[in-house]
Structures are given as C-alpha cells and as structure tokens.
Amino acid sequence: MKIHAYLMFDGQCEEAFNRYAEIFGGQLELMRYADSPEEVPIADEYKQRVMHVCLTVGDQLLMASDSAPECGPPHEGIKGCSISLQVDNVPEAERLYEALSEGGSVQMELQATFWATRFAMLTDRFGVPWMINCTVDSQMG
C-alpha cells in the first residue's frame, strides 16, 4: 500500500502544479473537466478547471483538482494538515524553503531543532501548508 496526498484548489490548481513541477521536477499529467471522455455536468465557467492532476516525482505522487459546485462541497481551503518533505541535505532544505515560501507565509523559519538538522513550517502562495524536515545532512561526511 502507498499513501499519497490529494489536494483541492479553487481555480489555482494548474498554476500551483506548474510551480510544483518547477520546484520538484517530475512528470506532470493534467486533465480539465472539459477534457473528460464522459460528459461532466458542470457549468461552462468551470470547464477549464482541473479535474485531476498528478505530479510524479520518482515513486512519489502528489495529486489534486479544482473544486466545482456540481462536483462536491465548496472549497474551504486546506486545513488541518501539511505536506511533509523529508530531505537529505541542508542545501536542498534551503532551496525548497526559499521556493515554497515565496509569496506565502512562514510559520516557522528554517532552523535547527532538537529533532532535525533543519526544519520549517510554511504555507505557500496557493494556501498549501508544508513542512520541510532534514534530519541528517548527507553533505556532511
């Protein structure tokens, strides 16, 4: 079994995942409601929203879609969870921190803690909460 995160956005899914593909690399697959092989009963103003997107990085997946009134409850933001990134070295932790915090808000600056070489908590400009955790610096012998 594998457990993967599935995020919900309110019209920003494509922009967010294009940014995540820049940051993390990987393969991006995207389908809009308008591209569905089956008719989706959805208002015209929502047809260009993302029905499903998947970013594959190695054997990891991050998936998401945009909300639409006909396809579920209204979007209320991402609450009560964070996407946790486990990184192997301080330079990578610093790179991810800078990229993800750009235009967002930082709850805890990237810093050494009693459990990690570096740790940070932030919410990116798309409203997604992230944790960056570097427990061992592979750059140090």
TrEMBL record:
InterPro entries, alphabetized: Glyas_Bleomycin-R_OHBP_Dase, PhnB-like
Top-level taxon of origin: Bacteria
Residue ranges constituting the PhnB-like domain according to the UniProt record: 2-132
Pfam family, one: 3-dmu-9_3-mt
SUPFAM superfamilies: Glyoxalase/Bleomycin resistance protein/Dihydroxybiphenyl dioxygenase
Protein's name according to its UniProt entry: PhnB protein
